[in-house]
Amino acid sequence: MSFKKVANAALENPVLRNEDWLKMHGKRAFRGCHLDGDHPFCKVASAQRNAEAQKIAADTSKYILSHCTIMASVMVEEEPFDYLIKPETSHLVNNNDDAWTNEVLKLSHRSFVGAFNFVEHFQNSKYAKGHILDAVLRKVNIAEGGSVWVYYCDILVATDIAHERLVSDIREGKVRYLSMGCVTDLVICSYCGTRVTDANTYCNHLSFQKGTFLADDDGVPRRIAELCGHKTMQNGGVKFVEASWVATPAFPGAAKRNIVAEEWVGPKTPYTSKQHEASAKFAMTASKKTEYEDLSLSEALLDADLFGDRRR
Predict the structure, then answer these.
(1) What residue segments make up the domains of the chain, in order of their start?
(2) Which H, E and C letters describe the chain, residue by residue?
(3) pTM > 0.85
(4) Which residue in 2, 97, 273, 294 is a FRET match for 226, CA 20 to 30 A apart?
(5) Distance (Å, rounded) from C-alpha 14 to C-alpha 309?
(6) Distance (Å, rounded) from C-alpha 93 to C-alpha 74?
């Protein structure tokens, strides 16, 4: 049985140029093109490196490209206790009490590339708004000296401008949050290490105490969460399948990012064409709430205590 997971993040001023993404991430940008040379979005997005890739864009569409820090990993202790989350990174467990270790996110983040862009996790390809073009990791030191660190994952999302209402809300800042969706075949209790492949076999910690803290044998408070996948599994045992525009943020370490391009020209797909008027109601749901406080990376790290609570 697979588990479906979601976690949200914010963006701001969502417009840059495609070239800016390359400048920010250098050789790490668009590496999915090397892994999947037939992926049309990767081919066109990296066309500066491969002029011939433009040939596939004969039937094109225009997209708004948005840059968002979609999620962060957590650091765990050394084996055999590699299920215990280090207290310094406890605040990066998302608000659904799910977490991904550094090793798992490194192994799995490339699965973002080519995934769908939806609204409010309405996972029906008929209502897809676009695709994810790229995913890049940034290593962030949490403790002095680099003894504790995590990855932040940046994604580049292409939303077809045919979805006029949604794109207008993105440009005007009414829609500011993205939420990732993934599937995994394994979750692990971050307190006792129980491995769960079926929701009916949850340990007591995951059944009744998720989101709380319990002291371990050394008296260190440990946050109880579901660790998705494991470093010994292929691609970390996790596959990221979509990123949705949403109203409610859940990822506490979200950083404000930008729009990468207003009208990037890319290949038209069956999933990014304009839908009939009735489908517009799905685009409306993501712009209903705009009162949430934006968090920068520094605010997320400095204003959260070890228990994941905001100090102010």
Answers:
(1) 3-78+99-183+240-301
(2) CCEEEEEEEECCCCCCCHHHHHHHHHHHCCCHHHHCCCCHHHHHHCCCCCHHHHHHHCCEEEEEEEEEEEEECECECCCCCCCCECHHHHHHCCCCCEECEHHHHHHHHHHHCCCEEEECCCCCHHHCCEEEEEEEEEEEECCHHHCCEEEEEEEEEEEECCCHHHHHHHHHCCCCEEEEEEEECCEEECCCCCEECCHHHCCHHHHHCCCCEEECCCCCEEECCEEECCCCCHHHHEEEEEEEEECCCCCCCCCCCCEEEEEEEEECCCCCCCCCHHHHHHHHHHHCCCCCCCCCHHHHHHCECCCCCECC
(3) no
(4) 294
(5) 28
(6) 7
Average pLDDT, integer, range 294-312: 42
Structure tokens at 275: 């839908």
Measured CA to CA, the distance from residue 285 to residue 241 in angstroms comes to 21
Cα-to-chain-centroid distance, residue 91: 16
Report how far residue 68's alpha carbon sits from residue 9's, in angstroms, rounded to the nearest whole number.
Answer: 7
- Give how far Cα 111 sits from Cα of 29, 145, 253, Å: 14, 31, 21
Q: Tell the residue number behind the tokens 């971050």, with chain if given.
A: 190
pLDDT band at 135, cuts 50/70/90? very high
The tokens for 168 are 């207008």
Lowest average pLDDT, out of 25-39, 53-67, 139-153, 176-190, goes to: 25-39
Query: Mean of the pLDDT values across residues 154-174?
Result: 90
CA distance linking residue 229 with residue 183, whole number of Å: 9
Structure confidence by residue, pLDDT tens digits, 281-293: 433 443 444 343 4
Q: Kindly tell me if the per-residue pLDDT of 225 is higher than 90.
A: yes
What value does the mean pLDDT take over residues 192-213?
Answer: 94
